[in-house]
Amino acid sequence: MDHAPKTKRHRHNDDVTSSIQNPNSLPNFDLIISSLLLSSSPSLSSSSPQSFDQALDQALASASDNVSDQDRLVDRAVELASFLLDSTKRCFRKRASAHNSNSWAFPRELTIKIFLMLDKKSLMQAMACCTLFHKCAMDPLCYSHIELKDNNVDDGVVRTMIHRAGNKLRSLELGQVSSAARSSLSSLTGSCLYPLFDNHLFIGNGLRRVHLYNLISTYGAGLDKILACSNITDLKIVGLSIFDEVFMSLTAKSCRRVEHLFVEARGFQNGSIVESRLLDLVTTIPNLTSLTVIGFGIDDNTAHILIEGSHKLKHMNLSRTSLIKGRFLRDLGHSIKDRPLETIILRDCTSLKEKEVLQFLNSLLKGKLRFIRHIDVSNIRGLVCDGGKRSDKPNFPLEKLKEERPNVKLVAEFSTSLSSSETLLRGISYVSSDEEDAWFANDDDDMEDFIVDQDVFL
Fold first, then answer.
1. Three-class SS string for the chain?
2. Which pTM does this prediction carry?
3. Mean pLDDT lowest for which of 19-33, 372-386, 431-445?
């Protein structure tokens, strides 16, 4: 049985393309569609789908009896409706932006200054509010101080912010800082610092302050970018796993303007590795006023040379150093009596002796070291006394010191009530009193190889 051939809808893509390129080939089509879309006819007042269907059918019937022309009209209507929808959305955004601009009482410059005071998460939220805020939040000044401490961000976020800051970048703080987070490394790696000197943009030239906390692979992958920023005055690296001559030489060569240097080891660093290079580093930084080196194997001789070699040094922190016994404190009254040194911190130095601290305090009572304002000899285990025993109640002349040097603050906390987690966070391993007695029974002035069990260091 023969069947009548099915009528196929004419394929007219080429016709549509030709019609779009040559509107004159569409007889009154655009006018018909425009009047349909923008009609104020009562039949369209309800804006219901049915009313538009009826209007479109009427327009097709009145436009032409030719099926091909009607198909072209439908395609053209779809295209113009899409244009109208996009234009309507753009118009809505423009009107909303204009409304926000008129309603927002502050000018752009003041808005940017307000955004400068926001943390980066709040800045991203403000950026999503409206076009006005987005433009203000994209200003390079809003990223001149990038502070992402204890934030769950990846390398891509940091690189994007560095690029947005451009040559306005002044400070950078990244990584895990809080006590709860220090047991694990930050998710950031040193590669997030690559944009500082990417494509010869030299974004890092304006950088003044850099604080990095427990980044993964800080050394080698990105640290060289930081050390190439020649205008840094405040450099802080916590969780440095390698502290060798390359780090020292790069810092001494490029960061000659550093005034505050803070380096804390992730694990124990042997004194033989860092001693000579550390001395070279300090002597090549003329404006160094604050030096903090925590967790490294520095002995009394090195500490003494560090102080003598830094003529502008005001603050020195050698905490968690197992080789320092305090002998360098003896000569400070003679060798640096006119130096501006104000603060000495020897917190949790496991070999620090009570008699050395006492002798230092007596020199203060004699009027020496007139610039000294703060001394910290706190130790969770107490100070080493005669016979290698430990003392958590040293016999210091506190009352006399308070009377004769009231501007000097002595911090000597010897609490043993810390929990094991708090002890680990301070970088101190737990050792029983019997083990301590055995370790210090043979202690003498020439023993320089005492090392704490390093497996529990952060």
1. CCCCCCCCCCCCHHHHHHHHHCHHHCCCHHHHHHHHHCCCCHHHCCCCHHHHHHHHHHHHHHHCCCHHHHHHHHHHHHHHHHHHHHHHHHHHHHHHHHHHHHHCCCCHHHHHHHHHCCCHHHHHHHHCCCHHHHHHHCCHHHHCEEEEECCCCCHHHHHHHHHHHHHHCCEEEEECCCCCCCCCCCCCEHHHHHHHHHHHCCHHHHCCEEEEECCECCCCCCHHHHHCCCCCCEEEEEEECCCCHHHHHHHHHHCCCCCEEEEEEEEEECHHHHHHHHHHHHHCCCCCCEEEEEEECCCHHHHHHHHHHCCCCCEEECCCCCCCCCHHHCCHHHHCCCCCCCEEECCCCCCCEHHHHHHHHHHHHCCCCCCCCEEECCCCCCEECHHHCEECCCCCCHHHHHHHCCCCEEECCCCCCCCHHHHHHCCCCCCCHHHHHHHHCCCCCCCCCCCCCHHHCC
2. 0.70
3. 431-445
